[in-house]
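Protocol step 4 of 6: structure prediction from sequence.
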Amino acid sequence: MISAFYSFLDSLKAKSVSLHTLRNYSIDFSKFKEFIETHKQLPTTPKITLHMKFQETSDLPLSLLTKDLIRLYISYLIEQGKSKRTIKRRLSTLKSFSRYCLKMQLLFEDPTENIQGPKLPKELPSPISYEQVEILMTMPDVSKYTGLRDRCLLELFYSSGLRLSEITAINRQDIDFEAALIRIFGKGKKERVLPVTPCAIRWLHHYLYHSERMSIQKDTQAFFLNRFGTRISPRSIDRKFQHYLQLSGLTGNITPHTIRHTIATHWLENGMDLKTIQALLGHSSLETTTIYTQVSIKLKKHTHETSHPLGK
């Protein structure tokens, strides 16, 4: 089973699946493997035999991957108090792996077929106001190289609604300063070209000038660098973002992805159509984008209730 999973990961790498996704798949499978190895004495049925001599091999037989085992695993996760989102994701990993095994004829039936994970409540994004975005923008100390870089990151998040993984993947040749355009490779390496606001372009140009003068660049392609001159990681950006959030005094669960939700909502409120927003955000389905119409209605209702003299 382990060797089959490594082959599965290799097939995903060949499809240019993001490092973040590969890491999540690896963690999920590791937890599943842990469950099998620590529950050798689980009750068995004619279809499932977990009481095996695991010491004979470092691998686990694929014959263990059955509907009964997966149902037991889901029950175990529920008993452990894992969130619905975690259970859903771990089942999704097993489904993807099972489909791969089926395709490669390592399995002859899909053990995850008709097994449904817990239903997740639909959560509406919680955008922040333009005034709050402005406050956040002013937090980095732009007299320092890292502060200048961080201001650029914040500007670009709000300018183009980028994902965290997309912004770290930007290379120098991806930005056309003259045309104020940026080339982005989103999920599944899908390419899209986005406009950048004049303000963001000015900051990006300013940052590029100073980064070239610093002469710390070791990664010759990466646009956003850490202090060692290599490509900045999503985790580093997230840490810096939380630091500026604390400095700003803004409260609530605000993340870099919140800025993406925010600009999408602001675009909609300012008259942009859903198809254009879908293209800018890189959503494969318009259904994903329509959630912002619900957010916009919710915000308008709240504003109406708090502003109307009879609404209080």
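Step 5 (inspection) to follow. The longest strand covers residues 181-185.
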